[in-house]
Amino acid sequence: MGSPGGELYSAEQVAERLGLHVRTVRSYVRDGRLKAVRIGKQYRIASDDLAAFVGPAAAGPAPAAGARGAEVSSVVQIDGIGAAGADRLSTLVVAGAQSPRETPDPLRIQTIYDREQARLKIVIFGGAGETADILRMIEAVLGVENDVYVHPKES
To answer: What sign does the dihedral 65-66-69-72 (CA atoms) show?
Structure first.
């Protein structure tokens, strides 16, 4: 019997590939957002399930030569954000990227949190309009006074 859905990845491999913390990947598995099988004490994620989670374009081959389309790559850096706020914002952005869209091309999101610097980086790959929607959502969340964003102390 072959492996379900192609190659199997560990939670650590998926975390490295997506630029996430391994605890975030395990949380996605436990919450049912990322399909996985448990082998012994470790989760294994099939390549097909990973592709379904991040979108086929992120896990699949490059488009054929001559294919038309444009892709935007954006990096948003947020300083002075606590770990809990970074986790909530990351979850919100990833969920926003997975919401139904008018275009078939999925948005792909990677988040990286630096606890020592209290810095969150959000990397967005996708169409210009869809990327702009996510950027507006981030701006709206950070623009309101709530506990997601922790302003750095003024000197």
So the answer is: positive
